[in-house]
């Protein structure tokens, strides 16, 4: 048969897809109640996905070559589109449901299987379709969204350039209005202006949303985007040079590529002009006067991508933890005196200490993700545009994305090592996950840059639309306007207040597991770090005229401020989720998990707390003891806790699990 | 052409091999002097390798499929064997040089290129050939080593079983002596007894060294090894079932597989009987009476594998740091006020804080690795077998392997992220490195198990040959015999003593960068952790009759003891290397790197030092300030520092470096 020539690795192919006739999943009562909590407000979408999505279809064989994996992803994505998967987020005028929060939950459920598929889906439905939807006018919706929804016109999102990754404002590509022909001329003036890492560009995309500097007359109006056809009948259109990024660290099924434009012309109508465009008389017009504010409004409309990436990362961490924990309660190693069998891995304290705090953190980040998703829905569905709320949402999305992706990478690696040699075998489900999730640390914004963005939002209290990393603006604002930090609680304030009040009436002996004490510790760390940062910047500004020095000298402090803020936001979401949980046994378990999340954080940061006299040496030792005790307690209920993380065992794609 | 059918991914293939006509490398004086220091006592082997090894031949195209990568590795290994690469470690009686230390240096140089190739080389020449050499008698050497050296008989090392990873004593495979036929019967009694992850087993090996329980008469004499032919003309021999482990997290060029034996018979002469065998009259005989001591003597002879793995990991970390640092001085991102160009990545403090402490640690671990290699040569080449010295060597090898592999995995990932999206493209040299190095965390001993082994050695002062993780023995020993920790310095004691004395005469203000203070901090932490561990075990032993509880409850403390010990050993090696450096400028740079290594360690562990009143809050803050200053100073000389890490730029295989 002619097809056998592509079957070049049959001897090393592993088949991990479980039979689709797998028996229905049995979940304990506690597991079901925990899953109910973790599923959050969008649990209906998640439960539907658990009934309808089929691991036999959606788990990718890790032995596929790059061309095979790309084909596999393409076919699966078409299958999803055929079943109406991608339409939820679009306006009702084109048959969508205008349900942005729901698209995040849908994306997270798809991330339970294969990250190439979810990234490809996210690029087409989320980034490309989302840009058309958010940045385009109704006529763009009518013309282009049906083809997005049906996947008739696969799209890509051409923002990043070789020379410009996180610094979107510096893009070099130009979109120049030509009044002679009433066209937009798309051009890459330099090699560095070549779009790169563009998912879908290498093979599939026929349309691209291309970001570049909009030039009308002699004036540059800043970054805008246009829809540009890039391929027809599988070939690049004239003036467009397409490259293939080739082998990557993972995401074998995503055809990332490069796009270079040589004076490519599209009609003026292709400019996505919701926030700014060219009028019939050939002049620039925008509903937003300030170019800076316009830029952030446009980028802000795309915040959902970052939220989805954070969510997919946390889901991936939960998957890895589910695999490693289930393995740790079946795998025995080493005899112990007085025991008939060798000891289960999870009965070793060292193994508990690896997995259980990570599980607690995965629960915490999931609750924070759910809270952020609801905030996205509130802000973006609000009738009036609230710029400060939008800016706060973006910075929180940036922070949670940075924290969640870093956690996922560490945790998947930890899980792979916790499974020993078996963890290194692709058929056990951890290595491809690790390779694929890796990219999230730098895609949709480099994590370090995102944390700086968050810190800037905190320092300026979201009040001013200073540029993404406009150091001058940030330093000046900190010097001029910082009036002390305000802990703006992100979830039900009375609940937090009540817990803190209650703790303040207790003696230290009683408060180790007291949530009010936990909240106080996190809040006071955040306030102190932010206030001392502002003071340092103010002092440096007096010493030097160079705002870069003031910015750069404090950069480690800036990152700490962002991290401590996120720790507090995540804890608040956990506290609110416990409060919302109506099942008594589940609430008790969530309480223990939250204790472990907090105490592990305090232990890891004990240097800070001791240095700032927030914790005594005895207290620090008590924290370590309490962590060990909590690990032992949670070990008892570990199977329901794993069930709570939401993966039916047949979804894990791990050959070693019995 | 018929060969085109294997060229199935030409469109995504990247070619990273530089032209072999690359110009000779230019290295600065300071870079050359630093490289001289880092090359250590085996610098002649390393310099020869830099002249003779050809990156165009030895850097693997990351786009190769698994079958292609295996073929590539096989061809390259034969090429190395043809040039006499593998012979250095074997006895002079078969044409070798009996130079074990030299083989480590050779292995490390090969690890500069491709880890699949180096692992395959290590399996054949190191593990297989090393077992024949160390565990066999002269007649085994004469019969088998020439085929090892020429690669006429590719070998594998069949130790690990499905059911038994780190716990070698528990292997289930049996080697049963049959007096009727004077043969050894090799048998896998259960599925769990199947050998797995065996490099070379899936495709290439024709011989295996098989480890199993030697049964003579009715008596089990513990783990021994025999040479077993496993394949002829590419097919498994009768009674042997060979499987392929398939796709792994990396190491695409290594054919890992499974071996199961069904009553396979080999002549008695195939038993590797240097430490124990069957005599002509069919009885068991050994020069070592204690079975426990015999077991450890046999395993101890294989210590070189762990040393090589640690070395390859540190080399890999140096490679990743070389790539990321060279990128960070060519890549610019974000404007800054008052600057004409965008800012170089390495001019951001956050970026310096990522790369420079890691570079300092890479230097430190390299010096520790060099010291360990010399100790290996001393111990194994000594005329008299010194069991305590051997045991100390093994535990230190275990500790350095654990520390170096964990560091490499973290650091390569850090470097990949520090290069943003470019870091995720395989052609830039980081992703395959990350995937390949990953395995080292659990291969040649799981890192957690190895650190426990080290801690046990420290607690028992290497005095007793208690089983690898014999908890009962360890607890009993700690209770009975622990008489306080003794800091046994691993390098020139007078030098260390002098530095410590000098520091003790200074006030705290003056000692932040004082090596004596650094040494004191590391020594006092180690002593305190070890002593308090022994006290905890003693107290627990009074509370409970169950030694597993005493062992398990203190497991986090055990791991801490091992880590703090290794920190001290690594620092001592750094101090000795600085002392040995004769170039003044290089010595000054090494001094700054050593400062950064120490202060980063103290900062990361500041919680411990504050909790134990070894450091004041003010001191902890001063440490952080000093780190930032050191980063700024070292940034100035960063290119020579990178050159010192020993990679000519053409060896980095990174397309993005200009």
UniProtKB/TrEMBL annotation, chains A, B:
Gene Ontology molecular function terms on file: acyl-CoA oxidase activity; FAD binding; fatty acid binding
Record EC number: 1.3.3.6
Residue stretches of biased makeup (Polar residues): 1-19
Biological-process GO terms, alphabetical: fatty acid beta-oxidation using acyl-CoA oxidase; lipid homeostasis
Pfam families named among the record's database cross-references: ACOX, ACOX_C_alpha1, Acyl-CoA_dh_M, Acyl-CoA_dh_N
Span of domain Acyl-CoA oxidase C-terminal: 519-656
Keywords in alphabetical order: FAD, Fatty acid metabolism, Flavoprotein, Lipid metabolism, Oxidoreductase, Peroxisome
Subcellular location: Peroxisome
Required cofactor names: FAD
Domain Acyl-CoA oxidase C-alpha1: 300-459
UniProt similarity note: Belongs to the acyl-CoA oxidase family.
Official protein name in the record: acyl-CoA oxidase
Species of provenance: Ornithinicoccus hortensis
